[in-house]
Amino acid sequence: MSDSDALLARFDEVRAHTERLAAPLSPEDQTVQSMPDVSPTKWHRAHVTWFFETFLLAEADPGFTPFQDQYWFLFNSYYEGVGPRYQRAMRGAITRPGAHDVGLYRRHVDDRVTDLLARVDEGTLDKVRPVLELGFHHEQQHQELLLMDIKHVLSLNPLRPVYAGSPADPGVPDRLRWVSFEGGLVEIGHEGPGAGFSYDNELPRHASYVGPYRLADRLVTNGEWLAFLADGGYHRHELWLSDGWSRVQAEGWEAPLYWTRADDGSWLEHTLHGTHPVDPAAPVCHVSHYEADAYATWAGKRLPTEAEWEHAATVSGAVEPAVNALHPRAAGPATGGLRQMLGDCWEWTGSAYLPYPGFRPAEGAIGEYNGKFMSGQMVLRGGCALTPPGHTRATYRNFYPPGARWPVTGVRLADDAR
Amino acid sequence: MSDSDALLARFDEVRAHTERLAAPLSPEDQTVQSMPDVSPTKWHRAHVTWFFETFLLAEADPGFTPFQDQYWFLFNSYYEGVGPRYQRAMRGAITRPGAHDVGLYRRHVDDRVTDLLARVDEGTLDKVRPVLELGFHHEQQHQELLLMDIKHVLSLNPLRPVYAGSPADPGVPDRLRWVSFEGGLVEIGHEGPGAGFSYDNELPRHASYVGPYRLADRLVTNGEWLAFLADGGYHRHELWLSDGWSRVQAEGWEAPLYWTRADDGSWLEHTLHGTHPVDPAAPVCHVSHYEADAYATWAGKRLPTEAEWEHAATVSGAVEPAVNALHPRAAGPATGGLRQMLGDCWEWTGSAYLPYPGFRPAEGAIGEYNGKFMSGQMVLRGGCALTPPGHTRATYRNFYPPGARWPVTGVRLADDAR
Amino acid sequence: MSDSDALLARFDEVRAHTERLAAPLSPEDQTVQSMPDVSPTKWHRAHVTWFFETFLLAEADPGFTPFQDQYWFLFNSYYEGVGPRYQRAMRGAITRPGAHDVGLYRRHVDDRVTDLLARVDEGTLDKVRPVLELGFHHEQQHQELLLMDIKHVLSLNPLRPVYAGSPADPGVPDRLRWVSFEGGLVEIGHEGPGAGFSYDNELPRHASYVGPYRLADRLVTNGEWLAFLADGGYHRHELWLSDGWSRVQAEGWEAPLYWTRADDGSWLEHTLHGTHPVDPAAPVCHVSHYEADAYATWAGKRLPTEAEWEHAATVSGAVEPAVNALHPRAAGPATGGLRQMLGDCWEWTGSAYLPYPGFRPAEGAIGEYNGKFMSGQMVLRGGCALTPPGHTRATYRNFYPPGARWPVTGVRLADDAR
Amino acid sequence: MSDSDALLARFDEVRAHTERLAAPLSPEDQTVQSMPDVSPTKWHRAHVTWFFETFLLAEADPGFTPFQDQYWFLFNSYYEGVGPRYQRAMRGAITRPGAHDVGLYRRHVDDRVTDLLARVDEGTLDKVRPVLELGFHHEQQHQELLLMDIKHVLSLNPLRPVYAGSPADPGVPDRLRWVSFEGGLVEIGHEGPGAGFSYDNELPRHASYVGPYRLADRLVTNGEWLAFLADGGYHRHELWLSDGWSRVQAEGWEAPLYWTRADDGSWLEHTLHGTHPVDPAAPVCHVSHYEADAYATWAGKRLPTEAEWEHAATVSGAVEPAVNALHPRAAGPATGGLRQMLGDCWEWTGSAYLPYPGFRPAEGAIGEYNGKFMSGQMVLRGGCALTPPGHTRATYRNFYPPGARWPVTGVRLADDAR
Questions:
Q1: What is the mean pLDDT of residues B367-382?
Q2: What is the DSSP letter of B283?
């Protein structure tokens, strides 16, 4: 298979996956923005298309004309360099183009990209390959967001709607074990283009000093979180960061987002499979950094730094779960090594999202992808159950503000080793 | 035709009209709430159905069971007496039931009402007739709201979508004339059940003293409003009520809602027919009470009181426009009497919305329809182009907060007569 | 005594009274603005001085120069016509001029006014007399505000500070009686210049039709309000206007402003005399229009209209209390007529604050005194315990937004008579 | 001098310095809170006193009774462990105790501490010494805050008040030079109790890897900032972090806080000496982290990390300015080494404020001093002109949210070395 054929096959696969994710959703489902952080499904479908149209077709397609002028304005997310954009918090006010018309837009751009790749010469191919690859990864990120966002949308509906499927059988709780690491002057960060795709924020690879430490071999479970609740975790100021305590009080947090009480006092959890009893063996998810930190304080431990996490993941190996699921599952049997490192919950670290030493943003509007968000956010590692297969890696730096709860976020404990 | 047949025919007609209004709207269009005051189309369709289900079927249908339990919660608007309700500002977060499922709900309730009316005895008929009639008028009010709301939704879309149809040809401006009234101790208010349907807020008929006055024979036109703009109307504090001036500055008002400037500096207006040049002969609409008052001050005149308006409408007759339109049209030729009294624009009066002397709210939850809103709002009279035929009358008291601009509101000048 | 001597004597008396009211307050007390509606004591002292400087001296004093240029900016309240002004909500950020320096400003303007009046000719005197008189009444209004505002400031201090004096002995509760009025086509409004001073909003005198009605002979008492509380008054939506119910819930109202619970569950009230047990015989005060309306609904009655109130006050006479107090006192013995009409609590009416028929605002910046506030407010009548002697009259129209609770506001019930 | 005598002498000195700083301020000046971040002068004076009363006297004075019960509530800042506290944003609503009464409170506590130290035994002295020392440093921090806060208060007054003194003569601009450091695996953090006082957040000393780097030998000047302005610095999104750009637009930033334009277009700066022309040679101050970062991006450089800063300060020495000033001054002549490291402006670093590896908060309520604020803030180093003499050190970690502008904050550039 030629290089351009391979790219096209990858393109088709990524693009089709987005449409598969949207398929269970009605036009109404695809339209709503339930809070400013959330985007409508049809906006995601259109925005990832806009990305290819703007950064690939407009640059490399000689006969390019935009599919629809105003789409450039409507489906730009935050690229100031590309021009003005429709304000984020109002994405849910846009009823047209509807879900069907967004499909037409997608097909149009797919056709143009297919045409382009069919007749591209080597030189152009070298030029467009990085943009295409970035577009694949960009679309995969939005696949994850699409699911997290629709989960929030559906959570507001008292009819308790189901996105798809049904929940896994309850898991078997097992005790948490610790895995130790010597640390020292370690290298973290992506090794660069030769080692496969990465975002600019994973670069450059660099030295970092890490003392001896140990990590929990699995994520904190719902059962453990229930013990935190039972011990007054959400009512004891001394466990919380000051900003976290303010949020607890201002927003009345009593449990993870999506937990509600059944009439008998037990806890239910809204999931993409509908609303079901909380499984004590499954990892807790939809907790903010504030909650993760308070839990760690309560447990007499702390969160890992991103250097610790990445070093451990690299040293001890970290593999994606075999089963692709819509909700994180209980850890498999203990192995002596680390479990649930990739593809279960995004794991809050104790590291602020800042540039690596020597970081340089990519050139042009694409340079707005990461660097300008390096303020006020915390790093998360490992991917989650909603992350599309193949989109996780040990060097991946995800980031959210410390109060975010709608992403699929969980907690792995860390500790100093003596 | 028997009494129950007549009621059923009226029921069918009202219900069918709602569905005709929704027909041009996609599921996505029907889902969005563009601001807290606006409700989604499918919510309107469901809420008016809930009204018949709650106040008619649940009371009078022996075999009644709710169509869907949670609908009672989702589609209650503000009736505290009926139980808790979904918060108003979040109506746009509800994707399911979708537009199609709301249709099924409507059909189910329509069938049950039809069944009920088919086999109803005289005694029950007397009991349900007032509820049915209130339900008709309630649904008509929501027909008007449905159009005003979708107009706002579509206005936020830079694609400039069209609801239906195309604009009327520009009218012929003519000069404003005055019609004088002697006033005195006049009677206003509805005459009660014998005189046809009314809301409780139009009762009781009562005496009110009105000095000699005169009214403009037609509404203020866009052309006249352009003169107000040209004379700095939106920039001269001395023309404005203090609250109005604060709003002008806080929200940057420069013209009526829905007016935007074309590239050549001329004014365009968003309508249900799409975006078109402002017609100088048509009445200005989508202005707040603050703007109406400032304009009147600028013109050296004032707004009519509701007693003046109603007395004049009664004395001189007021007829609905022959043509049903989606946008107010230029006044017809001068007649010596009052023009454009009904069915063009809701006309701001200088009267606060307060209970008439001797007012008593209706019994039960239906008593929440009007009385509890008698605070902080101004009375408007006359109906507008979006009001369904047969829903206007001289005694009708509409009301909005003085800053509201999304209803179809216009201005008729008044003056003291000497 | 010559005319100018009489004016000067009145000037001296009004000016001295302000300083007497400020005397018990420390420089710190005089500086604070506890919420946007409240102004600092020293601002009141300076603003009323600015009024004489701007509208009297700057107009009529040939050698006029401003005392301090920036004072024009700092101490303008809301007169847009006079130029820009320091934003109202930030009055409490201004530490200088301090209380002492404001005293110097006052003395300077007092001296200039004294000089002016000493050598004024007849023609000028005729010109300045209306401004002086308006200035007297303006300063008296601010005397009342000064006390209401400092009461709010001191209420936020957990040390429970005292402004002055000590509370009256508890009164003797007596039952409420009704006084009936025939109504008809009555005249209300001030009779104009010949009949003494009035604000422009009391003009012109005009006819108004009033049906037969009756008024409570005294204000609602704290004891009656306690019965309202005990009957769930603050928790029953059906008693409340919709806007009122929203405020109750948003701000957690459970009782009148300034009521707090003692450890034994009894109610205490913050007053200018400090914090003391609520006196069941004294009139309830510091209730909003929403609360007044809910109470009246609960009692099966209503609030009077302003025409009813004024007509009754005129017909039956209304006198100020003999004792000048800092807190409203229990009504004296029943008389068969109306009690507590003037000088106890500002009485909420059911009338919105709107222009009288034929109202014309005064010319120039002074015309901003009243007219531009005729939106979104309710009329109150009768004056309160903090109103300076001589400042009340039957035609006086006070006004506040329906949610205001920091003025000394109370409730008189009304009812239709049959 | 005995150990307790030495402590007492230090106590007297610190306490007297606070009162010297407050001396030029009127009671009115001392009362106002101009925004939630600012505290009134008299609150600072009382709060530092409360600290000694709560953490020293209440623990160690056998006959302890509180000076005034409610003061515990009023003057607690954020110590949840000590009990409820008066809400921060309302500190400016408290008029009593006034400035004079706070003086009495101070004297009372001073007397009790003096008594305690006069008769303290060795064992107790060992126990109270750390609390006293923390109290000294705590009061010094508030001395700096007192000046920064009153600077903000006075800035809102259009009369342009002066706190004290007059500005230095304009400095002589000189070019910026770079000082290089090899970096490597360096140690940072305080060496612990044996090495003098530190806060818990400076502990423990630990290894950190730092690549080769260079630092600007002086702070960025006003002159350089004017070049940034002239080059559109506040209008070019590509220079800014996303959160920073939002703030620029939401708050209309056009220049550092306290800069205003004179009528001739030149820039003036509000200082504690009054309002004066900006000195191009003096360091820019009152810029947020967002502005510091944008400037560094514009200059093609970056901010130093806190490890880089501390390593450089330790390696190359860093001394406080000889002259104690109320405003940062132009750098002295170039030395080949680093200038302006201590006591000019707090220097924004690129490091988020997070716990050092192995950090443990102090025991008890005093443990709330630092640890709970380790979220959402950036580290600043070096002290500023308002920092009291002796309160700076190379390991000191100050912290503010990235949008803060009212502290005396400046910018030192850093760069990678090759």
A1: 91
A2: B
**How far, in Å, CA of B219 to CA of D36, rounded?**
50
D99, C28: Cβ pair inside 8 Å?
Answer: yes
Q: Are D265 and D311 in contact (CB under 8 A)?
A: no
Mean pLDDT on C234-239? 96
Token output for C397: 């129209």
Please give the share of chain D, as a percent, with pLDDT higher than 90.
85
Kind of pairing, strands D409-410 and D346-352? parallel
Tokens of D344: 């000019």
- pTM reported for the whole predicted model: 0.95
The Cα–Cα gap between A318 and A392 comes to: 10
Closest CA to A164 of A177, A175, A150: A150
Q: What is the pLDDT of residue C231?
A: 98
Enumerate the residues of chain B whose CB falls inside 8 A of the CB of residue C81.
237-238
pLDDT tens string D71-95:
988 998 877 787 777 888 899 999 9
Contact C236, C200 (CB under 8 A): no
**Cα separation of D414 and D179, whole Å?**
9
Cα separation, C209 vs B185, in Å, equals: 8
Taking CB atoms and an 8 Å limit, are B93 and A28 in contact across chains? no
What CA–CA distance (Å, rounded) separates C13 from C390? 12
Write the DSSP assignment of C142-182 as a string of letters.
HHHHHHHHHHHHHHT-TT----SS-PPPP-------EEEE-
CB A221 within 8 A of CB A348: no
D371-410: b or e for each residue (b if 16 or more CB lie within 10 Å)? bbbbbbbbbbbbbbbbbbeebbbbbbbbbbbbbbbbbbbb
* Beta-ladder partners of D206: D188
- Separation CA C330–CA B141 (nearest Å): 49
The answer, yes or no, to whether C and A have at least 3 beta-carbon pairs within 8 Å is: no
Which residues lie across from D410 on neighbouring strands?
D347
Q: Which residues contact C358 (CB under 8 A, 6 or more apart)?
A: B211, B416, C203, C204, C206
Provide ipTM, 2 decimals. 0.95
Strands B346-352, B409-410: pairing is: parallel
Q: What's the DSSP call for residue A384? A: B
How far is the C-alpha of A412 from the C-alpha of A309, rounded, in Å? 10
As a dihedral over the C-alpha atoms of residue A143, residue A147, residue A152, residue A157, rounded to 10 degrees, the angle is 130
Are C95 and D161 an interchain contact pair (Cβ–Cβ within 8 Å)?
yes
Cβ(B82)–Cβ(B76) below 8 Å: yes
Chain C residue with minimum CA distance to B241: C372
Q: Listing from the earlier edge strand, what are the strands of the sheet with D414-416?
A: D178-181, D213-216, D414-416
Element (H, E) at A409: strand A409-410
Residue B250: CB atoms within 10 A of its CB come to 9
**Dist. CA C59–CA D377, nearest whole Å:** 56
**pLDDT, tens digit, for every residue of B150-159?**
999 999 999 9
Note whether A66 contacts B: Cβ–Cβ < 8 A: no
Q: Which of residues 375-404 of D touch A (CB under 8 A)?
A: 375-376, 402
Pairing of strands C206-210, C414-416: unpaired
Rounded-to-integer distance, Cα D334 and Cα D331, Å: 8
- How far apart, in whole angstroms, are the C-alpha atoms of residue D130 and residue D114? 16
Q: Is the Cβ–Cβ distance between D143 and D18 less than 8 Å?
A: yes
Our separate counts of H helices and E strands in chain D read: 10, 12
Closest CA to D172 of D214, D115, D218: D218
The amino acid sitting at B224 is: E
Q: How far apart are CA A345 and CA C228, in angstroms?
A: 54
DSSP annotation of B232 reads T
Nearest to B402 among C207, C290, C376 (CB): C376
- Which residues face D283 on adjacent strands? D221
Could you tell me if D322 and D347 are in contact, meaning their C-beta atoms sit under 8 angstroms apart? no
